[in-house]
Design goal:
Layout: E1 5-10, H1 13-23, E2 27-34, E3 37-43, E4 52-57, H2 61-72, E5 76-81, H3 85-94, E6 99-106, E7 109-115, E8 121-126
Parallel strand pairs: 1-4, 5-8
Antiparallel strand pairs: 2-3, 3-4, 6-7, 7-8
């Protein structure tokens, strides 16, 4: 078994694509129109054949409630590994990203949490 696909719900696929590519630095892998929405995935620049992240349209009512409550509680929907949390924090801060948690040491991990502008808290971390 391999993890090749994971998804995150987003309030606006086009806005999410712009944020995840232009701000976070991911690369668009797939975009297939499917009526009102699309099958839209991004991948890491460093691992373009790695796991794809589906920018899933938020169309299921219970998912809207879940996303809203997760965000309100400050809980990240997912996490991305970086080489240097402090350096990435400063880069993203310079691009206008809003952080709810600055880089913080938690045991062997340094993490930070920010808003993806599409309804989610995201976490970056280094081990």
């Amino acid at each position: 078994m391999k993890v090749k696909l994971s998804s995150i719900t987003v309030t606006d696929q086009d806005k999410a694509l712009k944020f995840y590519t232009e701000i976070l630095g991911f690369v668009k892998k797939t975009e297939i129109p499917m009526g009102e929405h699309k099958w839209l995935t991004v991948v890491s620049k460093e691992e373009q054949d790695g796991c794809e992240l589906v920018l899933e349209p938020l169309g299921f009512e219970p998912a809207k409630v879940y996303q809203k409550e997760l965000f309100a509680a400050g809980i990240p929907a997912t996490a991305f590994q970086v080489d240097d949390t402090q350096k990435e924090y400063e880069r993203l801060l310079g691009l206008g990203v809003k952080f709810s948690m600055q880089p913080t040491q938690m045991g062997p991990v340094i993490l930070a949490v920010f808003d993806d502008t599409c309804g989610n808290n995201l976490q970056i971390y280094q081990v």
